[in-house]
Amino acid sequence: MEEGLRERKKRETRQRIADIAMGLFMARGFDDVTVAEVARAADVSVNTVFNYFSTKEDLFADRQQLAVDLPQQVLRGREPGESVVRAFRRDYLDAIDTRDWRYGLNLGSDVFARIVNASQALVARLREMHVEREEGLARLLADELDTDPDDLLPQAVAAHILGTTRILTGYAVARMLAGDVWEEIEPDLRAQAERAFDLLESGLGDYGAR
């Protein structure tokens, strides 16, 4: 369905507020910027900001729900005969090729990391998001494979896979923060990813093959 004018204006206003907030966070740090300052810079009221974002942390993580839902999209998009591990291997390697934001490999992810690392509130929010991602993937796995309610394998599989992608991205971002260029990081990250997914695949095998 086509987006209505009202919905489009609301979406654009929300994005404008988030973009302005991010600019302020980048310039001064998350903890040193108030919601009132974001509202003034965006030429809206504080109430308007809170109409779009429940908390200050939501201003920073404005794509939170997209990030939480992404692992489920990978699971739903696996090809016939493709296991869960192979689907995530394919998706992660594609993100390396394209430097897509979905795994935090995009240009500027080191700036994002610096802002997060400097704020305990954001560190806690990112930790919550990781938990939500794992829980969402585990629920979908259990639903698709019709597992017994007491079966812990969906939780274990979700934790192993998303823990692996998180560790790989952490490695890449740490090198960006150290000043390494992507052309040096990329081949090492790819080799590390191949080894990590090989290990997952040999341990998890064809679990969840469609």
Automatic annotation (TrEMBL):
Gene3D superfamilies (alphabetical): Homeodomain-like, Tetracycline Repressor, domain 2
The UniProt record lists the keyword Transcription regulation: yes
Domain HTH tetR-type per the UniProt entry, residue ranges: 11-71
Pfam families documented for this protein: TetR_C_14 (PF17754), TetR_N (PF00440)
Protein name as catalogued: TetR family transcriptional regulator
DNA-binding region range list: 34-53
SUPFAM superfamilies documented for this protein: Homeodomain-like (SSF46689)
Domain of life according to the entry: Bacteria
